[in-house]
Amino acid sequence: MKRSANIKKLVSILLSVVFGLLIINRAVYIHSHTLDNGLTYTHAHPFQDSGSEDPVNPVNPGHSHTGNEYVLLDQVFNLLVLIVSIFVILNVIRTAIRRFIPEAFFSKLLSNHNYTLRGPPCVC
Q1: Domain ranges of the chain
Q2: Residue 32: what are its φ and ψ, rounded to 5°?
Q3: What gap in Å lies between CA 1 and CA 13, rounded to an integer?
Q4: Were both Cys, which of 29, 40, 59, 124 would link to 44 (CB 3.0–4.6 Å)?
Q5: Verdict on whether the full-model pTM lies above 0.70
Q6: Chunked in runs of 10, what are the mean pLDDT values of the chain (124 residues)?
């Protein structure tokens, strides 16, 4: 039981650090690219700033992406948002269940078997 609690605490701390770093990354390195077809992709990742004044289309010849990279950056960010959302929703459901359904209901539900120390019958 104590090991399970330690693992949960460790996972909670690690997820908090990872998502804190993602928030900092998004705040510091957010930038946009306008494609030839007019679509604008906004994403965040570390890059060397060229000092351009235009925040939407930075003139940085060393910083460009292929179409596949735009899709990958978008999917990675969306996947992380989805994972966080699932954890939050599951935690809300778990909290609601524990708050509104008495613990006695679960103990009766899970322990309706009557186990004894007697061994199985022997066929002789």
Answers
A1: 2-44+65-103
A2: -125, 155
A3: 19
A4: 29
A5: no
A6: 80 84 84 78 73 50 71 80 86 84 67 66 74
